[in-house]
């Protein structure tokens, strides 16, 4: 069982299925003007699994190399295929049409049109091309820094202890690798 101290915690009812006990610590040695409260909750394990980072090659649109006129024509053609939900124009929030999903769908359709047009007309470039010295080792070190920092933040950003030491070491290795990688190619 993991015990943690949190100042304020807001939790969705969908996350906590069973609250076992709540204790208000009136006689506790507490410097605050508030009473400490402790509770035990069961949290579904599907919410506690560590998020896996996927090596994501960031693509960058090169608008200066694309044909903006062709892009405008493709956007126009794609937008003409979207049906405007006219019922939302008269909606006052009290209607029976349930307008929010229609608005969301309309918005998502517009965004998808823009993405489709961009992908078909504007060349993309892997962001690594901006940093020709970047490599897979730097990707891995960056993910280690992100993981260490997220773990450090999740326990309250302590300024001492093993988690802080690990975070600083990961950050140092990453910065050192960037410096050595950058200078090798210059």
Summarize the model shown.
This protein has 186 residues and is an alpha+beta fold. It has helices at 68-79, 99-121, 136-154, 162-184; strands at 16-25, 36-43, 59-61, 124-126.
Q: Note poorly predicted spans.
A: 47-54
Task: Please provide the ordered H/E string of secondary-structure elements.
Answer: EEEHHEHH
Question: How much of the polypeptide forms β-strand, as a percent range?
Answer: 5-15%
The helix content is 40-55%
Q: Quick one: overall form? A: flat
How would you sum up the major sheet? 2 strands, antiparallel
* Count of spatially separate domains: 3
Class from secondary-structure proportions: alpha+beta
Strand tally is 4
Distance between the termini: 52 Å
Radius of gyration (Å):
26 Å
Please count the helical segments: 4
What is the mean pLDDT?
Answer: 75
Strand order of the largest sheet: 1-2
Overview of this structure, please?
The chain is an alpha+beta fold. Helices cover 41% and strands 13% of the residues. The chain has four helices and four strands, in the order βββααβαα. The strands form two sheets. It has a two-stranded antiparallel ribbon. Helix 1 (68-79) packs antiparallel against helix 2 (99-121). The longest helix has 23 residues, at 99-121. The radius of gyration is 26 Å and the shape is flat.
Supply the key terms:
186 residues, alpha+beta, two-stranded antiparallel ribbon
How does the SSE layout of this entry go?
Blueprint: E1 16-25, E2 36-43, E3 59-61, H1 68-79, H2 99-121, E4 124-126, H3 136-154, H4 162-184
